[in-house]
Amino acid sequence: DFTLCSSTYNPAITPTNPGENLKLRPLCKSDYEKGYMELLQQLTVVGDVTYEQFEDRFDKMSSCKNSYYIVVIEDTLTNRVIGSATLAVEQKFIHQCSSRGRIEDVVVDNTYRGKQLGKLLLDLLTLLSKHVGCYKVSLECKDKVVGFYSNFGYIKEEGQNYMCRRF
Ligand code: 16G
Description:
Layout: E1 22-26, H1 36-40, H2 51-63, E2 68-75, E3 80-91, H3 94-97, E4 99-108, H4 117-131, E5 134-138, H5 146-150
Parallel strand pairs: 4-5
Antiparallel strand pairs: 1-2, 2-3, 3-4
Bound molecules: 2-acetamido-2-deoxy-6-O-phosphono-alpha-D-glucopyranose.
């Protein structure tokens, strides 16, 4: 049991009770059939990922112990994955051999907006990052959602810049 770090939920929802006919749980292989890749397409380019490729990547991630925490929300009426977010944990030498978290690939299906599901995913993974010992957790996002993430204590750090090189 735990207390979510962000303020309040109205109506009240929790990870064990995310809403009517909804279930929050770790990603599993059968989610490929339940629309997980299609959901990710609402965030960015996914490409044509076959089941074999998905399974291979899933197994590689699972074999990196305590590094990838991927949660999904399933609609139990339609058996479709309608929300997901990932916490990736990176091992460090700095900060007394600490680790840092990154929150990635946060997506809620367009038709399930306004149900506080993004907030629930964010709260859960932020709390989890703290629980597993990360000294910090960060995320990258588009301008339009800076306000949303600032609700969870994420700030643009003074003197720190996000820089990127694409290939
Ligand atoms: C957003 C996502 C990031 C994702 C990226 C994909 C969050 C908080 N941020 O920045 O995790 O990987 O979009 O966009 O979900 P890209 O395909 O342009 O890299």
